[in-house]
Amino acid sequence: MTADLGNEKRALRAELRQRRRTRTTTERDTDTASLTATLQRFVQERQVRSLALYLSAPDEPDVRPFLRWAHEQGVRVLLPITREDGLLDWAVGDGATEQQGLHGMPEVVGEVLSPLALGDVDAILTPAAAVGHDGCRMGWGRGYYDKTLGSMANRPPVYAVIFDAEYLDEVPREAHDEPVDGIITPSRIITFRS
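RESULT FIELD:
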């Protein structure tokens, strides 16, 4: 990574993190209700029976109401568990029981499955800091999803879950950055490629 690109990413992440932290309770509640409905529509329209999701941290788009709904609908949900080697293991979960993971992020408590379990889902929904119009996903800098997605020969469709304002004209891109197939925001679903 060039120093300029690294600085550009750090500055953009700091700006996005600050924007997320200054959101009002009303904005968060409104976006959570809208995002839940949009995620439900995504699952119903695509007849998704299994998916990979994540447990949202306090500043992230809140996927927990959707996770509860998916569990009630019988959708099999795999949730990530971080590993020391930079990859992700997965566990089936409903989000009811969790613990703090390696980097302080919430993680599911359950039977740990290997990274290969990810190949059996209908869709992968990832967290992100921002996504560009070209499908470039910028994460928060640890590289877990880039490594995981980059290691998959035949991966299911990958959608980043972000707030509407985090869909940008472009984001800084490095060689290891894995693109996504689309985004899901509180107001819309956008597919970049089929």
